[in-house]
Design brief:
- The mean pLDDT is 89.
- The chain has a domain at 2-116 and 179-213: Rossmann fold (3-Layer(aba) Sandwich).
- The longest helix is centred in the last third of the chain and has 25 residues, at 165-189.
- It has eight helices and eight strands.
- By secondary structure, the protein is α/β, with parallel strands linked by helices.
């Protein structure tokens, strides 16, 4: 089964992708991880990507598609994969469609996880990071207060700039502007599926599995 999983920041894409990877026995392909692996492995595309990043520039769609092409042709993806973090724009979606056509593959579902944006603000602004070891805590889930110390190293817990409400709302605005056309692209292709990410982690997983097992996918 070949799946794209996307949604706004803080919706739980990475968490669900890891759970589904275990349940479905297919790899979770995070484009961020792919890029780091390519750079660390010193592949031709990885070297080009490193040079671009070292210069403070953005990785081109051409290089990103090339890196994705390389991993999709490995044995670990022979039975399918879950793609997380790509595409984010219509040109990327079009390039990915051409790649799938080239490899004679098709997506079984493009799943968008939807959630009220104020719930995202609430979730992300409740995250605290340890200044010492980097461990992340959530005031909504973990038994601690904003004045608590890290339970692992005793370090100071801080609210990162990225997790401040005003920053989160800006990120959500960017997401809406960039991904609304992508949603329309996959809707017109007939593969877009929508699930609510409002419930617990288990509830959301059950909804995705039910969708994937339905006769409509």
């Amino acid at each position: 089964m070949r799946i794209i999983l996307f949604g706004p920041p803080g919706v739980g894409k990475g968490t669900q992708a890891k759970i589904l990877s275990t349940k479905l026995h297919i790899p979770h392909i995070s484009t961020g991880d792919l890029l780091r692996d390519a750079v660390n492995s010193g592949t031709e595309l990885g070297k080009k990507a490193k040079a671009i990043m070292d210069a403070g520039q953005l990785i081109s769609d051409y290089i990103m598609i090339g890196i994705i092409r390389d991993v999709l042709q490995t044995p670990k993806c022979s039975n399918g994969f879950i793609l997380d973090g790509f595409p984010r724009t219509v040109p990327q979606a079009e390039a990915l469609s051409l790649l799938m056509l080239e490899l004679k593959l098709r997506f079984d579902a493009v799943i968008i996880m939807e959630i009220d944006h104020e719930e995202v603000v609430k979730r992300l602004s409740s995250r605290l990071s340890c200044k010492g070891c980097g461990t992340i805590y959530n005031l909504l889930l973990d038994s601690l207060k904003s004045s608590s110390s890290c339970q692992k190293c005793g370090g100071e817990l801080i609210l990162r700039d990225d997790d401040k409400p005003e920053t989160i709302r800006k990120r959500l605005d960017v997401y809406v502007r960039s991904t609304s056309p992508v949603k329309e692209y996959y809707y017109r292709a007939g593969v877009l599926k929508t699930i609510s990410a409002e419930g617990s982690i288990d509830d959301v997983t059950d909804s995705i599995v039910l969708l994937l097992n339905s006769k409509h996918v």
